[in-house]
Batch of 2 targets.
Target 1
Amino acid sequence: MRLRHWTYSCVLIATIATAAQAAAFFVDADRGNDSNPGTSAAWPFQTIQRAIDEAAGRPGPDMIQIASGEYQENLSISDPACLMLSGASGATVMAANSSEAVIAIDSGDISISGLTVTGGVVGISAAGAQAASIRLGL
């Protein structure tokens, strides 16, 4: 019930936020390029981390749409706003470094759906700094 409430809250915040604050980013391992703007499915980023970094640099809630495919990377998330990662069917994040967490969350209100996570020492680590607040929805 809490997850549903939190997800609805994030969606409501995203809906209310102005266009200048909220952003959607697109990632496609096969067709993307990290020098693209990443703001449309026609011009996606190639890596999820590039989209996470771009989202963290903008105020307000953000959504990252991840196309199906394999993404070999370790992700680090530190976003003070609401960040939603949404994977299409078949989207898989495989650890580039198997001795680290596949997804390490340091802070933020993070929602992850539709992603298969594999290959790291742990799949998702949400162990931020002592003063950091983390809310995680899966």
Target 2
Amino acid sequence: MGIYDYSFAARDGSKVSMQDYKNKVLLIVNTATGCGFTPQYKGLQELYDKYKEQGFEILDFPCNQFANQAPGSDEEIHTFCTGRFGITFPQFAKIDVNGKDEAPLYTYLKKEKKGIIGSSIKWNFTKFLVSKNGEVIKRFAPTDEPASIDAYIKKELEA
């Protein structure tokens, strides 16, 4: 299976297919609203504003698996992110990124690009860059600021 074979839930519970993002450069991120890295939303939005017209998408998956830092409903999380950080990129239903209930998309991403200490997601704001043809290019740690990813995104958009 490839990345375009997966689907997941939108905030309203409807099904979203990765096919909807074919031929786009993607940054897939697990996020949380109560995390020390939450200010990265600002940098993510800046990347999105800079590259969205060139075929770039950020797929935001809130995740409450790390110290319960994404409490609240999907709509409450969305309201916080749009109100505080002005995000306009797609934000989906809350998911698990590790364990028995992990989203199949994350099982795939972790298999394609392991982290420094194995495949598990260690914390919120782990980021995966995916090329236009669906290849998982690079995995970024939570400590990697969005601005540090800019050159990688630009390179993939120009490919």
